[in-house]
Amino acid sequence: MKKLCYQTLDEMNFDGYLLKDAPERVLQFGEGNFLRAFVDYFIDMMNEKAGFNSKVVLCQPIAPGLADMINEQEGLYTLFLRGFENGQKVNKKRVISCVSRCLNPYQDYESVLACADNPELRFIACNTTEAGIAYDPACQFTDIPANSYPGKLTQFMYRRFQKFGNEEGKGFVILSCELIDNNGKELEKCVLTYAKQWNLGDAFIRWIQNENIFCSTLVDRIVTGYPRTEAEDICSELGYQDNLLNTGEVFGFWVIEGPDSLNEELPFAKAGLPVLITGDHKPYKQRKVRILNGAHTSMVLGAYLAGQNIVRNCMNDEVIQGFMNKTIYDEIIPTLTLPKEELEDFAASVTERFKNPFIDHALLAISLNSTSKWKARVMPSFKGYVEKYGELPKCITASFAFYAAFYRGVRMNEDSMTGVRIGAEEYEIKDDKAVLDFFFAHRDDDAKTYARAVCSNTDFWGEDLTQIEGFESAVADCLEKIESEGVYAVMKDCLA
Fold first, then answer.
1. Nearest 5 degrees, angle CA 64-CA 66-CA 68?
2. 55-59 vs 24-29, strand pairing mode
3. Mean pLDDT of the chain
4. CATH 3.40.50.720, the chain: domain bounds
5. How does 293-313 read in b/e, with b if 16+ C-beta sit within 10 Å?
C-alpha cells in the first residue's frame, strides 16, 4: 500500500480540499495529536473556507518526536472527528494539508531559527504541556537549543528582532494552548525574564512588549489520537498507508483573548468556525470548568458506586443522566455570568459529548485526584448557589456525599487505597498521599463522625464546611442513606 503523500492522492484522483503550496505564516511548537486535531484542523478549514492561504511549519518540542514521519508524508495526515451531534452518530474524515514540514531543533536548530527570517511568518502556536510554560534559570542564551520552551521562544524572538526590529508589524501573534491559567500571560512573563537574565537589551524588551501579542487561550476538544486497534482497517479503507492517523471528538471550541483586530488577521468567523476572539477569555474558562468538568466531578463517583463503568453508559440511565442534568441546569448555570441561553447550549453539547459512541471514557480514570477537582470545579458552584438562594443545592450536596463514600477505603496500598462497591467489587482510589492517609484513618467512622471529619478538613477545602448551615447534617444523612439503600436511591431522591 502506498504511503500518504500528494502524489498518492493525485493518483487516486482525490477530490477533497488540498493546499499544496502557500507561505509559511504559522510556526507551531508541538506536533502531537492534540495540536494536529485542533489548531491545524482550524487553520486547514480557514484555508479552505476563508482563503487564509497559510502553511504551518512544525517544531518538534522534545528530542524523540514525529518530525521524520511527518516529513515522509509531506505534512499530510487524515483526521477523523467522531461523536454524537444533533442526536446523530457522526464520523467525519478530512485530509489535513496545512502542514508544510516538521523541524527537529535537536538535530538542526538553525533551520528553526531561520524561520524567524521569513517576513511572512506572523503566528506562533504552542502546546508544550502544562509543564512547558515554566522558567528554568539554568537556560542560557548560548544553549543550542535552550532546554525550556520559553527559552527557545526567547531565542527565536531575538533572531526576529535582529532581522526586523526596526519595522512595524513584524512581531508575532502568539497563541498559547497549554492547560494552565492565563497561559499567554505566563509565557510572556517567562520570555521577559529570559530577556533580562540574558542581557538582551532594553530595545528588545520594548519590542517584545509593543510588537507582539501573547494571547491566553482556552481549548476544548477531546483528542483520542492514533487509533491503534483500528489503524490497519482504516488504512485499507482509505487506500493508502497513513502513519499519522488522528482521531478526536466532533465538538471543538477555541477562545482566544486578544484585540478585535485579530478578527481581520485570523478569519475564523468568516470560515464559520467555533473560534471566538474576545477581550476576556475567563467567563468561557469558567463555563467549561464549572459545567463540563463540574458535571464530570459531581456525577462520576456516584455513578461508579451505582455500578456504572464508562461515561456513555451513564447517559443511557435516566436517573444518573437526570441527576447530572439537574445539577447543571438548576444548580450550576444559575451561578454563572454568561447569558443563560449560551450556558444552556453549552450544557446540551456536554450531554452529547458524554454520549460519544467512539470514546470509552472510564469513570475510574476521571476519579483521579477528586479532592482537588471537587474544590476547583464544584465548590465555586456550591458556594455561589448558597450565596444566591440562601439554601443548599440538593444535587451538589449529594455529590459531596458520593465523593466521601467513594473514598471509604478498606486497604492501603503503596500509591493508592482500595475501596469496595456493590457486589464486593474492589477498586483503586488514587489521590495525594496525605488525602489517602486522612480517609484511611477515618475508614471506620460512623456516618455522622465521618461527615464531620471530611467537611471540617480545612487542608482540603481552604475552610471549614461545617460552618455552612445544614451542610454537615445533609451530608451525614446522604451517607446513611447510601449505606442502607445505595447511591442510586439518593440520586432518585434528588430528582423527586
1. 105
2. parallel
3. 97
4. 6-280
5. bbbbbbbbbbbbbbbbebbbb
55-59: strand order across its sheet: 99-103, 55-59, 24-29, 123-126, 173-176, 213-220, 253-257, 275-278
Q: What are the cell numbers at 13? A: 484522483
The grid coordinates listed for 25 are 505564516
Three-state secondary-structure class, residue 79: strand
Please state, in angstroms and rounded to a whole number, the distance separating the CA atoms of residues 259 and 265: 11
pLDDT digits (tens, 9 = 90+) for 102-157: 999 999 999 999 999 999 999 999 998 767 899 999 999 999 999 999 999 999 99
Burial class of residue 169 (count of CB atoms within 10 Å of its CB; 0-12, 13-18, 19+): exposed
Alpha helices, DSSP H, located in 165-212: 183-197, 202-211
Q: Is the pLDDT of residue 286 over 80?
A: yes
Q: Give pLDDT, residue 130.
A: 63
Q: Does domain 287-495 have CATH number 3.40.50.2300?
A: no
Relative to beta strand 253-257, strand 213-220 is antiparallel
Instruction: Report the run of H or E that residue 100 belongs to, with start and end.
Output: strand 99-103
Please list, in sequence order, all residues whose beta carbon lies within 8 angstroms of the beta carbon of residue 149, skipping any fewer than 6 positions away: 29, 61, 126, 128, 132, 133
**Helices in 165-288 by DSSP H: which ranges?**
183-197, 202-211, 231-238, 262-265, 282-287
Cell, residue 204: 528588545
- Grid cell for residue 325: 442534568
| Spatial distance between the Cα atoms of 9 and 209, rounded to a whole number of angstroms | 44
244-254: string of b/e by CB count within 10 Å (b at 16+)?
A: bbbbbbbbbbb
Parts of the chain belonging to CATH 1.10.1040.10: 287-495
Q: Does domain 6-280 have CATH number 3.40.50.1260?
A: no
What's the rounded Cα separation, in Å, for the pair 197 and 142?
12
Residue 49 has a pLDDT of 98
Q: Is the pLDDT assigned to residue 444 strictly greater than 70? A: yes
How far is the CA of 159 from the CAs of 36, 119, 170, 402, 480, in angstroms? Answer: 26, 12, 12, 55, 66
Q: Residue 290: which residues within 8 A CB-CB, separation 6 or more?
A: 332, 335, 336, 377, 380, 381
